[in-house]
Design brief:
Helices cover 38% and strands 16% of the residues. It is of the alpha/beta class and 459 residues long. It folds into two domains: 38-68 and 351-458, Alpha-Beta Complex (Aspartate Aminotransferase, domain 1); 75-349, Aspartate Aminotransferase, domain 2. A seven-stranded mixed beta sheet has the order 4-10-9-8-7-5-6, with helices on both faces. Strands 11, 12, 13, 15 and 16 form a five-stranded antiparallel beta sheet that branches. β11 (377-382) and β12 form a beta hairpin. The longest helix has 22 residues, at 352-373. The radius of gyration is 22 Å and the shape is globular.
């Protein structure tokens, strides 16, 4: 049977079995089998190494999440120390564990400007958003307004793979194979400056899109709408940065009609946009915040949903539906919480939000320079170390490539050959490197992208 119980799998064995027994996320299994994925075997800082030992600059931080870099000894030591105490115990039925208590305290301290008072732990971003939807609907039942069940979200938004999160997601490829979805989820236009039918003026677009939210609430009936959810900066939908007036206007609309505002901070939380939390970049205080990814840089799966005092207050009265009948086996996992405590110490001690702002501004400048060299780049956008390049057939007309055009594969493959990992998503190159990136790493990324775009243009 081969080395079925051996930990010493050879490189040849790994290559022979790559994608043979695994269905990989977000892709056609036939493609994975015919074109097996890169085997990432080791990581150090902002670099990862494949099974043959080739080094790559990690321009996506794993999947938006390895914010403090790979192989941090502080986090490894925290996990090992917790393993020496206890690896797992649940937070169900009258038990808990020290790391989850400590992390809940730390998170509420970090989110004091947003007035968050309670945290519910889960296993990742999809879980965190699903928790938020259930809390929002339960909140209104406890408030005696059981008809407030509808969730409004944005086109191009991404909120996870569970049925609730998928129903809120505004990118059709994530939804079509699984419809019909959950009723009561509505989508409105995103403040997408590069592609919108109204205006090229950012402030005007912010007003238009906030007004659409208000009209939708009015049309649906305010007493039927539970919450509005959005990412402070839309991630998987293409790094869509809203106009500066958008989030403040959204907060005003939600307040006017009593609608809960949910910030999906799964990607933007813990420094990626240059602020500790994405919504803080616009001085907006959500009612619910969904966290994952950067919470512990992916060292052990973890998600969290935080609520403010307004939401928490509904549970302070007696009600037959007050029990939170929701949770995950790994909610508050000791190893995950221990890793998060060590991770956040790094984030705060090394001022990674500040580094993301400074290095991100330099990266944006270099990408603007790159756009002058490549007609394929239609738009450059981003905030902090959350950056995107929109790739187009024709810069003047903004004509996009067809979804099945091989341009994306050519660019990402050429980047790999040049020594870098980038992400392609529906016509956009997404760049979300570790928050420990330096200007020297940016210059290295520039050279990789320059080579990749030149290669793709020649092919």
């Amino acid at each position: 049977m081969g080395p079925i119980l051996s930990e010493d799998f050879s490189v040849n064995f790994l290559k022979a079995h790559n994608a043979r027994h695994v269905w990989h996320p977000m892709g056609d299994p036939k493609i994975s089998e015919s074109d097996p994925p890169l085997i990432v075997a080791r990581g150090e800082g902002v670099y990862v190494y494949d099974a043959d030992g080739k080094r790559y600059l990690d321009c996506v931080a794993g999947l938006w999440n390895v914010n403090v870099g790979h192989g941090r000894p502080e986090i490894k030591q925290a996990i090992v120390a917790q393993l020496d105490r206890i690896a797992y115990y649940s937070t169900f039925q009258g038990t808990t564990n020290p790391p989850s208590i400590m992390l809940s305290h730390l998170l509420t301290e970090m989110m004091k400007p947003e007035a968050m008072t309670k945290v519910f732990f889960s296993s990742g971003g999809s879980d965190a958003n699903e928790t938020a939807f259930k809390i929002a609907r339960q909140y209104w039942k406890l408030e005696g307004k059981a008809d407030r069940t509808k969730i409004i979200s944005l086109k191009y938004g991404y909120h996870g793979v569970h049925f609730g999160g998928m129903s809120a997601t505004g990118t059709p490829p994530h939804r079509l194979a699984y419809e019909p979805l959950v009723p009561g989820f509505l989508h409105i236009d995103s403040p997408y400056l590069y592609r919108n039918p109204w205006t090229g003026d950012a402030s005007e677009l912010g007003r238009i899109c906030a007004a659409e939210l208000e009209r939708t609430i009015q049309f649906q009936g305010p007493d039927t709408v539970a919450a509005f959810i959005a990412e402070p900066v839309q991630g998987a939908g293409g790094v869509i940065v809203p106009p500066d007036n958008y989030w403040p206007l959204v907060r005003q609309v939600c307040d006017r009609y009593g609608v809960l505002l949910i910030a999906d901070e799964v990607v933007t939380g813990f420094g990626r946009t240059g602020h500790l939390f994405g919504s803080r970049g616009w001085d907006v205080k959500p009612d619910i915040m969904c966290l994952a990814k950067g919470i512990n840089s992916g060292y052990v799966p973890l998600g969290a949903t935080a609520v403010n005092e307004r939401v928490e207050s509904a549970w302070k009265r007696d009600h037959p539906l007050a029990a939170i009948m929701h949770g995950y086996t790994y909610s508050g996992h000791p190893l995950a919480c221990a890793a998060a405590l060590a991770c956040q110490k790094i984030v705060l001690d090394e001022d990674l939000p500040g580094n993301a702002a400074r290095t991100g501004a330099y990266f944006r400048k270099r990408l603007d320079d790159l756009a002058t060299r490549h007609e394929l780049i239609g738009d450059v956008r981003g905030k902090g170390l959350m950056l995107g390049l929109e790739i187009v057939k024709n810069r003047k007309t903004k004509e996009a490539f067809a979804p099945n055009d091989p341009i994306g594969k050519r660019i990402t493959q050429a980047a790999l050959e040049a020594g870098g990992i980038i992400r392609w998503a529906a016509g956009k190159i997404i760049l979300s490197p570790p928050l420990v990136f330096t200007p020297a790493h940016v210059d290295e990324a520039f050279e990789i992208l320059d080579q990749a775009l030149q290669s793709a243009r020649r092919t």
